[in-house]
């Protein structure tokens, strides 16, 4: 599966000069900072710094840009843990247990878990990519609308497991989010639900909406608490506690490995991979856990599952870029632009003609995973000063940053207006116990689910038997059904065995 | 729970939220049907909207019978004041700009929280607003509306 001649050429290229290596650390730091400011996206950081790569050779440019990508994947988790605002849509599931851990004074451990899971996830993701890039690229080519719909459906099943204590309210929140996600011009050109507002033609701006709901749900209610972490003795991030958190992640090797593999496979699905992979991994970890109800209250396994998957999805997202020349998301689109700037043509021949270059980039990213550990440990000390700021000041400042960030995302007032409306919805949902994560997942996946469902319907003409000719869809469907049906059956069996004993 | 709800009367706030969700869903469904009543257009919206309306009815009946678990009964505290300030901040942004608007919003929020020390109240928000405006202006590829900077 590995072209050994190209691999040895890659090692040669990798160590030909130390210049590209010097760019990795600033790249990681930039990605980390962009990732952890709510509203600033990793892809935005890559786009902002793209012009600087004009003066670099191709390898250096790739090292620098992919370092920003890697740093950003971890940065998104930092704000999810510290402020309950996922810095990127791929860090949504990190907030579910990361923020409760921070509120319990375990922010050091949570960040340590996120750092270790991110480093290991990134490394595993790229190792899998190194070995499987050829078969995976065939898989990506075989992905049709029915397969994409199954992947989206997989993400949506999380709504049911995140319903909170009130099942009807949780599912209503998820379905409401799903419906709002479809507002605007549909994939077959029909304009719905815009109520004459031009902003909504392209649909609701999902990231500002997500930030608004997550932020308002916790922060407004918290402003009178004094500090994010109540116990003054715990308001520092001790190195030892970050290390302890890393140990907690390492003590969950199966979750780490499963999350990383899920991340790279789901991440390879163009367009939706990184946003869905962390949700799928979280849902999977929750279903398998003997105490699923502890998820959402600060269970470290939830953070491990989410962070390992979102980091390894970076490797997955490279499959379609390297093998097919197709960007699967914002970050890889910028990388494709960098290809063009350096007169490198992406596409199906790129992998065969430039296998050594592809392997060099993959190896460099595995090295970045190790460097991220160092950069993360150094920068975390600065990033976590947040816990020492009084909430009376922190809350309005976070909202100001969110307003700036949402303006930056849309380029006009649509972002801040969306932020405001969804902050209101988030606050009301929180007050009446409607699951905000479920609503956010619905919103994230609504448009895509509808598009893929529609295309599946158009291709099959409504004849479900046509799905039988699509083996990947059938496998995905079987896995989905098994993942829903098996855990309760096993739990019941365990319970009856315990009762018998 | 029924006894609790009965003693405190109907949970009007929750009922209003459910009616609001049902109203938005109903309006959206109506608009989508008006736009194009084809399977292609309604393939997801119709079943999802019907499910949502059914759940709204179920929850509303629960509230009316006093059986639904009440929402967060914690006092509202300063949250409504902060929400109102935030709304004012966002709505006035195109006029007062991100620089002045952000500083004034943070100052007002601190006032609501009872902050009276002049440095914390005036200097910190101003410095934060200037730094945030300048950094976002450098990072974001669009012109950011400002009044002074």
TrEMBL record, chain A:
Pfam families: TctA
Domain DUF112, first and last residues per copy: 22-440
Recorded coiled-coil stretches: none
TM segment ranges: 20-40, 47-69, 81-99, 111-133, 139-159, 171-191, 203-221, 321-345, 357-379, 391-409, 472-491
This protein's UniProt keywords: Membrane, Transmembrane, Transmembrane helix
Entries under InterPro entries matching the protein: DUF112_TM
Top-level taxon in the UniProt lineage: Bacteria
PANTHER family named among the record's database cross-references: TRICARBOXYLIC TRANSPORT PROTEIN
Record's protein name: Putative tricarboxylic transport membrane protein
Native organism: Roseococcus suduntuyensis
Lineage, highest ranks first: Bacteria, Pseudomonadati, Pseudomonadota, Alphaproteobacteria, Acetobacterales
From TrEMBL, chain B:
Keyword Transcription regulation in record: no
Transmembrane segments: 12-30, 42-64, 85-112, 118-140
Coiled coil region boundaries: none
Domain of life, source organism: Bacteria
Record InterPro entries: DUF1468
Keywords: Membrane, Transmembrane, Transmembrane helix
Entry keyword Membrane: yes
Stretches assigned to the DUF1468 domain: 16-145
Protein name: DUF1468 domain-containing protein
Origin organism lineage: Bacteria, Pseudomonadati, Pseudomonadota, Alphaproteobacteria, Acetobacterales
């Amino acid at each position: 599966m590995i072209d050994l001649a190209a691999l040895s050429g890659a090692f040669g290229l990798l160590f030909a000069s130390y210049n590209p290596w010097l760019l990795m650390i600033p790249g990681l730091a930039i990605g980390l900072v962009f990732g952890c400011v709510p509203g600033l996206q990793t892809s935005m950081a890559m786009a902002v710094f793209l012009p600087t790569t004009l003066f670099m050779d191709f390898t250096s440019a790739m090292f620098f840009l992919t370092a920003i990508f890697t740093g950003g994947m971890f940065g998104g988790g930092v704000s999810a843990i510290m402020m309950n605002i996922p810095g990127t849509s791929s860090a949504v599931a990190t907030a579910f247990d990361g923020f409760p851990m921070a509120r319990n004074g375990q922010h050091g451990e949570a960040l340590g878990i996120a750092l270790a899971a991110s480093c290991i996830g990134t490394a595993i993701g790229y190792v899998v990519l190194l070995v499987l890039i050829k078969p995976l690229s065939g898989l990506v080519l075989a992905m049709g609308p029915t397969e994409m719909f199954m992947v989206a459906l997989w993400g949506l099943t999380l709504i049911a497991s995140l319903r909170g204590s009130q099942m009807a309210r949780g599912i209503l929140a998820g379905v409401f989010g799903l419906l709002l996600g479809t507002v605007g011009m549909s994939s077959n050109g029909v304009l719905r639900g815009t109520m004459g507002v031009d902003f909504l033609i392209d649909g609701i701006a999902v990231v500002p909406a997500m930030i608004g709901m997550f932020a308002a749900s916790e922060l407004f209610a918290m402003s009178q608490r004094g500090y994010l972490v109540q116990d003054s003795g715990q308001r520092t991030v001790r190195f030892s506690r970050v290390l302890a958190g890393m140990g907690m992640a390492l003590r969950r090797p199966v979750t780490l490995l499963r999350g990383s593999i899920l991340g790279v496979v789901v991440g390879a699905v163009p367009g939706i991979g990184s946003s869905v992979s962390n949700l799928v991994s979280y849902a999977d970890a929750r279903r398998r856990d003997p105490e699923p109800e502890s998820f959402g209250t600060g269970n470290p396994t939830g953070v491990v599952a989410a962070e390992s998957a979102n980091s390894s999805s970076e490797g997955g997202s490279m499959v379609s870029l390297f093998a097919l020349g197709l960007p699967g998301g914002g970050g890889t689109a910028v990388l494709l632009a960098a290809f063009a700037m350096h007169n490198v043509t992406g596409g199906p021949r790129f992998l065969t003609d430039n296998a050594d270059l592809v392997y060099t980039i993959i190896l460099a990213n595995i090295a970045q995973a190790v460097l991220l550990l160092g950069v993360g440990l150094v920068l975390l000390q600065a990033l976590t000063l947040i816990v020492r700021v009084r909430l009376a000041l922190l809350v309005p400042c976070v909202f100001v940053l969110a307003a700036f960030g949402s303006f930056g995302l849309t380029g006009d007032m649509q972002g801040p207006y969306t932020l405001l409306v969804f902050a209101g919805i988030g606050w009301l949902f929180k007050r009446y116990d409607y699951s905000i994560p479920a609503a956010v997942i619905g919103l994230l996946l609504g448009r895509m689910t509808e598009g893929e469902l529609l295309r599946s319907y158009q291709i099959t003409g409504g004849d479900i038997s046509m799905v039988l000719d699509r083996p990947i869809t059938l496998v995905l469907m079987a896995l989905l059904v098994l993942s829903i049906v098996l855990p309760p059956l096993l739990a019941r069996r365990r319970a009856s065995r315990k009762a018998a004993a | 729970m029924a006894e609790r709800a009965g003693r405190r009367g109907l949970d009007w706030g929750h009922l209003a939220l459910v009616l609001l969700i049902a109203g938005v869903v109903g309006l959206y469904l109506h608009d989508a049907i008006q736009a194009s009543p084809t399977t292609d257009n309604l393939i997801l919206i119709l079943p999802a909207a019907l499910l949502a309306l059914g759940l709204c009815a179920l929850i509303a009946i629960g509230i009316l019978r006093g059986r639904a678990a009440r929402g967060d009964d914690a006092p509202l505290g300063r949250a409504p004041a902060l929400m109102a300030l935030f709304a004012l901040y966002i709505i006035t942004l195109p006029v007062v700009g991100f620089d002045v608007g952000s500083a004034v919003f943070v100052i007002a929020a601190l006032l609501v929280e009872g902050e009276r020390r002049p440095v914390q109240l005036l200097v910190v928000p101003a410095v934060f607003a200037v730094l945030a405006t300048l950094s976002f202006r450098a990072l974001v590829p669009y012109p950011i509306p400002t009044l002074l900077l």
